[in-house]
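Justification of computing resources. Each target in the renewal requires a structure prediction run like the one illustrated here; the chain below, 64 residues long, is used simply to show the kind of job we budget for.
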Amino acid sequence: MGYSFKNSKGKTYYLHTKDVVLKGGRNQTIYYFAKDERSNSCDLPAGKKIVENEKTGLPFVKSM
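Resulting C-alpha coordinates:
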Protein backbone atom coordinates (compact mmCIF):
# COMPACT_ATOMS: atom_id res chain seq x y z
CA MET A 1 0.00 0.00 0.00
CA GLY A 2 1.35 3.39 -1.00
CA TYR A 3 1.23 6.78 0.67
CA SER A 4 -2.24 8.27 1.08
CA PHE A 5 -3.21 11.87 1.82
CA LYS A 6 -6.57 13.15 3.05
CA ASN A 7 -7.12 16.77 2.07
CA SER A 8 -9.06 19.44 3.94
CA LYS A 9 -12.21 18.58 1.95
CA GLY A 10 -12.10 14.97 3.16
CA LYS A 11 -11.04 13.35 -0.13
CA THR A 12 -8.27 10.73 -0.11
CA TYR A 13 -5.52 10.74 -2.74
CA TYR A 14 -2.79 8.12 -3.33
CA LEU A 15 0.79 8.91 -4.34
CA HIS A 16 2.09 7.31 -7.56
CA THR A 17 5.38 7.39 -9.43
CA LYS A 18 6.34 7.20 -13.09
CA ASP A 19 9.71 7.21 -14.87
CA VAL A 20 9.70 9.43 -17.95
CA VAL A 21 12.27 10.36 -20.60
CA LEU A 22 12.60 14.10 -21.20
CA LYS A 23 13.21 15.64 -24.64
CA GLY A 24 16.95 15.85 -23.99
CA GLY A 25 17.08 12.12 -23.27
CA ARG A 26 17.38 12.49 -19.50
CA ASN A 27 15.38 10.13 -17.28
CA GLN A 28 13.32 11.66 -14.49
CA THR A 29 10.95 10.25 -11.89
CA ILE A 30 7.69 12.15 -11.50
CA TYR A 31 5.28 11.89 -8.58
CA TYR A 32 1.54 12.44 -8.88
CA PHE A 33 -1.65 11.86 -6.91
CA ALA A 34 -4.74 9.94 -8.04
CA LYS A 35 -8.07 9.22 -6.35
CA ASP A 36 -7.63 5.46 -6.79
CA GLU A 37 -4.71 3.26 -5.78
CA ARG A 38 -2.94 1.59 -8.72
CA SER A 39 -0.07 -0.84 -9.16
CA ASN A 40 2.51 1.97 -9.38
CA SER A 41 1.63 3.51 -6.00
CA CYS A 42 4.63 4.40 -3.83
CA ASP A 43 5.71 5.70 -0.45
CA LEU A 44 6.68 9.31 0.18
CA PRO A 45 10.34 9.71 -0.86
CA ALA A 46 12.91 11.09 1.58
CA GLY A 47 13.45 14.84 1.34
CA LYS A 48 9.95 15.53 -0.02
CA LYS A 49 6.81 16.89 1.62
CA ILE A 50 3.14 17.12 0.67
CA VAL A 51 1.52 20.51 0.15
CA GLU A 52 -2.17 21.08 -0.53
CA ASN A 53 -3.37 23.71 -2.98
CA GLU A 54 -5.60 25.94 -0.84
CA LYS A 55 -7.93 26.81 -3.70
CA THR A 56 -8.54 23.37 -5.26
CA GLY A 57 -7.58 21.02 -2.42
CA LEU A 58 -5.29 19.00 -4.69
CA PRO A 59 -2.08 17.72 -3.09
CA PHE A 60 1.35 17.86 -4.71
CA VAL A 61 4.88 16.77 -3.82
CA LYS A 62 7.43 19.46 -3.00
CA SER A 63 11.11 19.28 -2.08
CA MET A 64 12.01 20.38 1.44
